[in-house]
Write a structure and sequence with these properties.
Helix content: under 10%
Structural class: mainly beta
Bound molecules: manganese (II) ion
Largest sheet: 7 strands, antiparallel
Distance between the termini: 53 Å
Strand order of the largest sheet: 1-22-19-24-17-14-13
């Protein structure tokens, strides 16, 4: 089994723009954790937003990214996206937006028009997934992954269900295409059930508990809002649910390349960060087209 390194409580909430009230579960500055190739996780725990907004939608204004991918998982609520590479659309409950910033993209993220009008519960996770050095300057790309396109796997013994966002799950291939070997599973466990998840020995493993309480490998307890990190080595993880639980399981082959991050840019060297800043200033990231 993979050995639990730490169980982290949820951090302080802060606003990203005026649309996302998130807790930083980890970031690329946490050098001591085995997170590679994952760079950052912001968790917007369930929060109610009032409706009645016809304009001036809540969200984050235009901003750049370079050198990695942003993955937004919509558990509840709707987000509208527009970017300088022509990507765009609305993701709603159960959908995933997988944006490859690559060589550079400007984008904005807002509550959708419908959600702004109707209001309701809002729950999201945004992940930053690193790109291998050779792919950091790849062309930007946008994958809008609808819930219906995400394969479901029923776990044995009526233990629950896994939605395979990326990677593979005992032969079922995930919906997203990735640049390095990654598994991303949205897992629901029924109460008092257990499942041993197959995780390659070479992968790092991270688990976010979005709901419920689980026991990991027969000893460590993790509760709603907590993040579990693991030591390197060992294969597989055994998860038992004390009640109905909702987990985001991330595994990935470490890139083992230098990580130099500054705000919305994550590259391999300081010089590449300075170049990214110059490129944004000179308009090389393009503009979001307005219809
Ligand atoms: Mn962004």
């Amino acid at each position: 089994m993979k050995k639990v390194a730490n169980v982290y409580g949820s951090g302080e909430k802060h606003w990203v723009g005026n649309g996302f009230q998130v807790q930083s579960m980890f970031s690329y500055n946490d050098k001591d954790k085995n997170l590679d190739p994952f760079l950052l996780m912001d968790y917007n725990a369930p929060r109610h937003f009032d409706g009645g907004r016809k304009s001036d939608f809540r969200g984050v204004e235009e901003h750049p990214h370079r050198g990695f991918e942003t993955v937004t998982i919509a558990y509840q609520g709707e987000v509208a996206h527009a970017d300088s590479h022509g990507g765009g659309g609305v993701i709603g409950t159960g959908d995933v937006q997988w944006m490859t910033a690559g060589s550079g993209i400007m984008h904005e993220e807002f509550h959708s028009e419908r959600f702004s009008m109707e209001g309701g519960m809002f729950e999201m996770v945004q992940l930053w997934v690193n790109l291998p050095k050779k792919d950091k300057m790849t062309d930007p790309k946008y994958q809008a992954i609808k819930a219906a396109d995400i394969p479901n796997v029923e776990l044995a013994d009526n233990a629950g269900i896994a939605r395979i966002i990326a990677g593979d799950f005992v032969g079922t291939m995930g919906a997203a295409s990735t640049f390095s070997p990654i598994n991303m599973w949205d897992v629901r466990l029924n109460a008092h059930k257990s499942h041993q998840f197959a995780v390659p020995e070479s992968h790092n493993l991270i688990i976010l508990v979005l709901d419920g309480t689980v026991q990991i490998n027969g000893n460590e307890i993790a509760r709603r809002g907590e993040l579990v990190t693991f030591e390197r080595g060992g294969a597989d993880v055994l998860i038992e649910s004390n009640n109905e639980s909702k987990l985001l399981i991330l595994t990935g082959e470490p890139l083992n390349e230098p990580v130099v991050g500054y705000g919305p840019f994550v590259m391999n060297s300081k010089e590449e960060i300075l170049q990214a800043i110059r490129d944004v200033q000179s308009g090389n990231f393009g503009k979001i087209a307005r219809s």
